[in-house]
Amino acid sequence: MEIEPNEDPETASALGADYSARGHLEGRDRDHFSFTTEGDPQLWTIEARGDNIAKVTYLGSRRSHTSATVSPDDPTLHTLTNLYLLPGEHRLEVRGSTGSGSYSLRAVPIGPPTPGMELEPNDAPEQAHRLRFGEVRSGHLSETRDRDYYRFDSLAEEHVELRWMPPPGVVVKVYVWPAGRSQPVTIDVPDEDGAYRYQAVFPLGRHLIELRAQRGRSDEPYAIRLDRLNPFLVPTDREPNDEQHEASPFPASLRLEGSTRGSADSDWYQLPRFQTPTSVTIEPTERTLEGFPKRDGLRLYDAAGKQVDPGLVFDEELSVYRGTLPAGEELSIRIRGFGAYQYLFTSNGAEPQTPGPPAVAAALPAGPHRIAAFWPEGQRVTLPLALRNPDQESLRLKLDVVSSDHRWRAALGSSSVTLAGGQTVEVPLTVEVGPDAWSIQPVNVTVRASDPAGAVQSLATELEAVCGAPAVDPQ
Questions:
Q1: 395 with 366: CB under 8 angstroms?
Q2: How are the residues of the chain apportioned to helix, strand and coil, as percentages rounded to the nearest 5?
C-alpha cells in the first residue's frame, strides 16, 4: 500500500515483495514509489491502472525520465515497456488528474532483452543506443511525444546510409546531427516504399540520431539500420550539403542530380573557377520544374555568401537558366525546392565526362581478416591486390586506398601501375595496426583503380580485431 507522505522522490513508498502497490490520488496529487532490483540487468514492464491517472513516469537521471503510454483500448491503463534496469534502487511517479480515485501499480520482470531490441530509457541524447554497421535494431514509438535516440561513431570520414522503416500508420521525423554540426539534418519525407533514408559522408566523430513520432500509434516495432557505402562512389548530391560551406564538388558529368527533403532544405554545389567570363546555360528537366520554383529554385552566390546579381536568369521561352560567370571568382549554386531534381550544365569550353569503369580485372581477398584485439604491440596485415589487363593495349592505372579507421594505416606498394596487354601484376596492400586495437567494429579498407580518362573501379576488404585471436605479424 501507498504510505503518505510520498509526494517527493525522497519519501517514496516501497513496492511490496511482489513489486506491486495500491494508492489513491486526489486531484493533481503525486505519489512516488521505489523498488530494488538484483542480479543481472533485465527488462521490466511498469503497469498502472486507475481512473484518475494523468501520467506515470520512471524517474531516471535528471534529464532521462521516461513516461508510460496510455492504452488506446483502455484509457485507465498506463504501460511502460522495454525498461532496461541495472541492479539497484529505482523510483516511479504516479501523477493525478483533476478528479479523485484509487489505482494499482506493479513492476513486472521480463528477462534479458532480445539482441537488437531498443531498451528504455533512450529518450535523451545521453541515453542513445549504439548503432553498428550492418545490424538492424528495432523499437517502439508508443505515442506522439515519444523520442528514441541512437548514435554511431565513425573513425574516419565515412560514406554511409541510414535507413528507418516505421510501422504502418506512424508519421515521424528523423533528425541527424553529424559530428560538429549545431543544427540537425531533418528527414521527414519517406521514399516510395515508406522508408526514411539518409545517405551522407560523415566526418570523423560521434553522430546522433533522433526518431520523433509526429502522429499515429502502432504496437508494431520499427526497424533502423546503418550501412557502409563505397567511399569512392559518392553521389553528385553529396550530403550533407545543406549549407554553403558544405557545397558538393561540381561533377565532371556537368549534371546536377539529387533531391531535397522540403522547403527548408537546400543543396549547394561549388562551381569551377573560370579563367575568362563564361556564358552558361543550366537546363532543368520537366519534372524538376514542377517541384522547384523558377525564380528561387536556382541561385548563384559568391564566396562571401552574397547573391550574385543578376546571376542566373530563367528564360521562360526555352525553360532554361542563363548567365555569365565572372572570371577567377569562387562561386556556388544553391538549389532549393522539393523532391528530386536534375539540371544539365553547359558552357563554352566545358565538356561533360561520364566514363565507365576501366578495363581491368581486380581482385582482393574479401576477409574478414582477423587480428588480435588489444594486443600490446602493433600488427601488420599484408594482402595481394591482383590486377589483370584483359585487353591487348597497355593500361595505366592510378591506385588509391582508404581505411575506415584513421588509426589503421593502409598503403599500397605502388601508387600507379602500367599493365601490358594480357598482363597480371600483384601490388601488396599493407595495413599497419597500432597497439591495443579496439574490437568495437570491423574496419573496411577500400582500393580504387582509375585510368587517365577518369574511369574508376573499386573493391574492398574487411579486417576485424577479435579478442583471443592470434597476433598477425607483430611489430
A1: no
A2: 5, 55, 45
* pLDDT confidence of residue 356: 66
Q: How far lies 206's CA from each of 126, 131, 359, 407, in Å?
A: 12, 11, 39, 16
On whether the CB atoms of residues 51 and 101 are closer than 8 A, the answer is yes
Buried b (16+ CB within 10 A) or exposed e, 92-108: bbbbbbeeeeebebbbe
- Looking at per-residue pLDDT, the higher value among 141 and 202 belongs to 202
Q: Are 174 and 184 a contacting pair, CB within 8 Å?
A: no
The residue behind cell 574492398 is: 460
Split at pLDDT 50, 70, 90, the class of 264 is low
- Long-range contacts, 74-79 (Cβ 8 Å, 24+): 76/49, 76/50, 76/51, 77/47, 77/48, 77/49, 78/47, 78/48, 78/49, 78/53, 79/45, 79/46, 79/47
Cα gap 447→456, rounded to integer Å: 10
How many whole angstroms separate alpha carbon 339 and alpha carbon 74?
Answer: 41
Return the pLDDT at 378: 96
Looking at residue 115, its pLDDT comes to 76
- Kind of pairing between the strands at 171-177 and 196-202: unpaired
Amino acid 1: pLDDT: 61
pLDDT of the residue at 263: 54
Q: Which residues, at least 6 apart from 422, have a Cβ–Cβ distance to it below 8 Å?
A: 389, 390, 391, 392
Q: What is the pLDDT of residues 94-121, one digit of tens each?
A: 999 888 899 999 999 988 887 777 777 7
Which three three-digit cell numbers place residue 123? 529518450
Tell me which residue of 19, 13, 20, 69 sits closest to 42, measured CA to CA: 19
| Phi and psi at residue 307, to the nearest 5° | -65, 135
What nine digits make up the cell of 170? 506512424
Phi, psi dihedral angles at 311 (to 5 degrees): 65, -125
Q: Grid coordinates representing 174?
A: 528523423
* 3 state SS of 288: helix
Residues 138 and 388 sit within 8 Å (Cβ to Cβ): no
User: What pLDDT is attached to residue 420?
Assistant: 93
263: left (phi over 0), alpha (psi -120 to 50) or beta: alpha
**Hey, what's the cell of 147?**
523520442
